[in-house]
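Box 3.1. Reading complex inputs
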Amino acid sequence: MRVFTAVIAIAAGILILGGYFLQNIFPALADVQTLLLNWAIIMAGAATLVGIFNLISVHTDKVRRREQGSIYSALLVICLVAALLFGMILRPDHSAMKVVMSGIIIPVEAALMGILTISLLYAAIRLLRRRADVMSFIFLITAVLIIFSSVTLPFANIPGLNTFGRWMTQILALGGARGILIGVALGTLTTGLRVLFGADRPYGGN
Amino acid sequence: MSDVIKCPVCGESNLPDQEFCRYCQSRLQPLTGTLKGADAAIKPGQVPTKKNTAELEPILPQWLRDARDSARKSAENDAAQAGRQSQESFSASSTPDLLAGLQSQAGNEEEETPDWLANITGAAPKPKKPQADSPEVRWVELGGAKDFAQEESDAEPFTPSWLEGLAPTEPQSDELTDWFQQTDNSQKSGQPEPQKPPFDTSFSAPVEPAAESGDTPDWLKKMAAESAQSNEALFDDSSKTFDAPSTDTPDWLRQMAAEAGEQTNDPNVPASDASDWFQQIAADDGSKNNNAPVISAGTFDAPSTPSSDAPDWLRSMGDFQDHPQGAVPAPGAEAAGFSEAGFGEPEAAASSAENLPEWMKDFPSIDNEQSAPGASPSWLKGDAPASSAGAELPSWLSGTQAPEQQQAPAQDEAAFGDIPGWLKAAAPQSSVYETPSAEPTPAPATLSFDSPDWLNAFKSIDTPDAPDEVSPPAFTPDSQTSENMDALFADMPDWLSNATDTSPSTSSTLPPAANAEEITPGELPSWVQAMRPVDTGSSARSSSTSLSSDQTLESRGALAGLQGVLPSVPGFAPTSKPKAYSIRLQASEEQQAHAALLEQILAAETEPVPIASFSALTTSRGLRWFLVAAVFAVLMAVLFMGTQIFPMPVGVPPEINGALQVSQSIPEGASVLVAFDYEPARAGEMEAAAAPLFNLLRQPNLTFISTNEIGSILAERFISGPLADSDKSGFQVLNLGYLPGGQMGIRAFAQNPGLTSPQLAGITSLSQFMALIIITDSPDSARMWIEQTSFTRGAIPMVVISSAQAAPMIQPYYDSQQISGLVSGLYGGAVFEQSNGGIPGITRTYWDAYSLGMLLAMVLITGGGLWNLVLGLRNRTSMAGGTK
Amino acid sequence: MVFSPDLIAGVLSFLFTLLIFSYLLGDNPLFRIAVYIFVGVSSGYIAAVVFWQVILPRLFTPLTNALLSGSMAEKVFMLVPLLGTVLILMKVSPRLAGMGRIAMAFLVGVGAAVTIAGALTGTLIPQVLGTINAFDMIAATSRNIQSFEAIFSGAFILAGTIFTLIYFHFGARPKADGSMQRFGLIEMAAWVGRVFIGITLGAVFAGVYAAALTALIERISSLINFIGNFF
């Protein structure tokens, strides 16, 4: 099983890479790549269902064991099953589902995001009390300057502030962001190659 | 002996003073050797250091704790049980329980030796507490408490009943009594007088032997049982033994016999006496102990053939016990009876083999018995010949030993040759056979000179203090024939042989040095050699002192629990009664220190260590509520009033300008692919940022797709929301819905949109769209779209409408010209809205609140940050001062 | 009174917004109820979306068509994702989870290859080229950027990129006392890289705060609008 799964992973990866870089030489590899990618899309959708089933089983076990907060788990399972049934019956684009979307999902998520405003403010204010080092000062000064440069004043703008703010975001911050992106790309490249070489087997073949 | 020690493991030579092999680190010195420092062995008379080991109790094994608990309980019940104990006799139906011995030991640490025996050993007898040595735990192992009730009731207060008929009355002072008294008076001057007759607690003495009987190997028990079954034969043989003249009797015995013959011409008198007291035993006790083999008088009268099952040495033991002098080791016999086979003299023979280390080790202390004038039992008084110097033996002894003495010199070598060399060295008999011929005949004034070496070996180390005193053998093994002795020690195991010779007399005038020369460690069995407590270099010395009485209780190894099994170190000859080794944990200081260290380590492992940083993680509820109030108050006020105080931004950044140019360049009715990849949480921001761009498009043919499950309905919401509010009603929308697989889905869609999404039949390339607009709140989502479409999108423009939080990470892609424009957040939307002719949209509604909220944040972060910086510095300063 | 979907959605939105905001006063059961309901409804909705927009149109419908009228190759090609889906769904059962490794291996292999190609061609090479092209005076001139400004900006971007990458270089040598120490120049460059990273994260923080503030404004605005509908 270990060898079989590794062979599948490596073979699929090589075929996909061939579709990227060799399709001009072997046009069939582009079709093979598309075919394999479409298979992968379907399996990825099924994997989403696996995650939801796992969520159901976890909270059902909580209810069965009558753990602390099991009432919330029961509420979760009930709402999940109800939404699933209505979604399966009425389809997701039904007006009822839009009501659920507009009345529950979006408000809750947006409100949670709004609460984050207070949390971010609190953290920024308390930062220097915990860590009064150079990096903290740089972090906060940058944040304050960018915040200040992204607003307009009612009566008069501070000259140069907007330009300085933009210079920070598009020059200084860009350099750091590019370094991070390149670093992430290098890490991704290394990890992917390890998977294709069979050194890493995150699918459980170890 | 060489001056090097050969390692038994690797065979390399090591210096004799090394404890461990320098090559393989194996132990060279046996663990039973002389210990040093805190681990040094307790010397005779030294009281073990009291150690507080209560904290180590929990780590004891369960069985040991149970034993200790039982011992404590028994000790508590001593007082209550003592009264009954004096009236109760013990049954021989003992339970062969190993732990039972531990119980009795624990509960009777100080009373495990009978007083009479303690007096014999010369130890200062303690004030007797008759009630103190009858714990119930003994009965658990020894039998029912009532088994001996009748026996005790019939007995005199201090003498067993079975001894009454045997022993003369006290006033009838015989020679041996006088001899005992004399030797005691001369030897034990500084020792306290015994306060009670030696037999007052005679039944408490067997406790320890009984306890050891529990430790007796099975084979020995079996042998005991066999001997019990063949007791008739044994006694038959014993009668023959006494009838037949012994040829092994040394000269001194002959001399003693000659002297004794003047008083007692009938050597069979003791035998008859023995029959009497045996008969009395049978009458008094044997009938009461159903579990014990009843020995009738006829057993002794009617001779029977020797049992072929019984080993020779056991038979000799039986012979030996059949001898009237066998009554001397009556305590030992009792012990045996308590432990295994019941109360009976023949059983004592068998049990004596089992408990041989116990009762035989008592012999060496007989010397010390001299210190107790009244220590001689009455029966012994009656049997012992009257001799002030002890030169005279009892008549029965003289009668029986006289013939033996005549042939003893002749049989010395023969008998010695039958004994293995190592046994010769270990056994005290070796000196018996050598010294009489080698040494001149000792003066009759002292028995120590008259008696052979082995008998001298029975003398304690106290003897040098009184060299003129004799050590009359209360128990006279010389009454045995040499054949019996040979058979005895030939069949006895090594440890038993050693036990018999563990009575080296350092004061002996005839040290068995010559014999010790014959003892070579190589001749000893390896396991015996390993367990010898003396170092190899001093093996000769140890062998020379092997005749000393060794009361050492083996505490480890296979011989654990046995006493006097191994020869002790030179010079160690207990002058007092054997120390009672408690099973209570005796830990040295070093061990206690190690235990304490281990406890500290364990405690440190289990003790929660507070993390210092946690102390600073206290949340300020006041600050949080202040922030909530401030932010909500400002925002609600601005939004409720709908003010438009803050002007919209006027400057157009390059990335927004690029997006503006793309939107303006899209022809009317062109196909535009729009990816809705944001979470519902940022729907307000994304809709506000994207709406101005879509309002700028001219009747586009929009194709919505999302890599987010919720994205499709967010697209529906966007269509029915911000776009519905605009006047752009001429656009067409195709919602492809959810595109699973993340990068894989994007790549598949970019490779062939028509194949991936059936609704796009006929569109085989991404370049067939006029523009690609990515609405996302995640830099990862934007990166995936940028990366996976870089191969296929060709020259079509890509505009990213992102959340403000993702803009810094998407900015490099605009800088590298991978995307054509970037509109980020409400600010970007406001700029784009301003560039769209100033049509008021969502951004205008939010802009005042947004600006005030951002300014409030700037002020709070700046002011609050500085305030907290000061507080933090003050705290650190105060903490630093407190530390100093 | 007619309960229109918009009214119901408005009521629910108002109610759940308040429930979530109640967290500002502290954790409370109302907040938990709202969150658990949200998770349950979202999960159910996602499951329905996956079925209606993935499983059904991409698996069942093509499979049915292939089985009914497709060629053998089409049938085989559609049976493979069906088999993969079944194997993936086996991971629901702990007893059969091992069978899901095959499908997971396929997904991981495909995903790794896609990630490699995308990172290489979409980020690594373009970003390196973008850093180099920052000093392209011709391109700068075409974008109405002066040469001095382009060089100045390009130098900062280059420095930021390099120093940030150096910061992520964790190679070190052991010291005499056993501790690990980076090379001196690397350590100094890494410190500079930390400054750039600090600036970048400061910008991200400001963006996150702006996004959160926008969301809060949107929620408060919706509350005010909902209340305003009744007056």
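In summary: DSSP finds 42 helices and eight strands in chain B.
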